[in-house]
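Session log. Operator J.P. requested a structure for one protein chain; no other inputs attached. Running the standard single-chain path with token output.
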Amino acid sequence: MKKKKELLLKNLPDSDTLFRELRRLRYRKGFRRTVVDTVRSLIVVAALAVLISLLFLPVLRVTGTSMTPTLQNDELVICSKVGSFECGDIVAFYLNNKILLKRVIGTAGDWIDIKEDGTVYVNGTKLDEPYVAEKSLGECDIEFPYQVPENRVFVMGDHRATSVDSRTTAVGCIADEYIIGRVMFRLWPWERIGAF
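Structure written below.
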């Protein structure tokens, strides 16, 4: 019995070893807690970012050339979900399960007239369009002057020769409920970043 006690006492760690082991265990427990808390925080932040992006500020990628030179292919833009739009705003909207970006030319009740040379008149006043590189009547199968119906907007692309927009009956005026929002800010590429 005495030998067993002596053997046990010999195998007991000293106080320094015990303190080091306790510190190591506390560190591991604290490290695990920190990792779990960090992962939880990242998940919450990611979920909030997705909700804000979907509900308030959708991020969209530009595809195609109908808005050149204002917007180029593969640029990233942020939209703001606003209730009303003005002439000159760039809006994103749904059309045949696609998202398109075009410029608002007229709102409900406006009279739109486009001449053969591509000059646009809204309510009898020539529209100042510094964003258009070259004017063109483009693809057009509606009769002018044209009045924009209630709860709709008349939209056109900035690259008038190639853009398919409200000048055709295939697209027509865009109903308010199909509009995602107004393009507010360019995110990418870095050299063209900025607000509209």
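Operator note: The first helix runs from residue 2 to 11.
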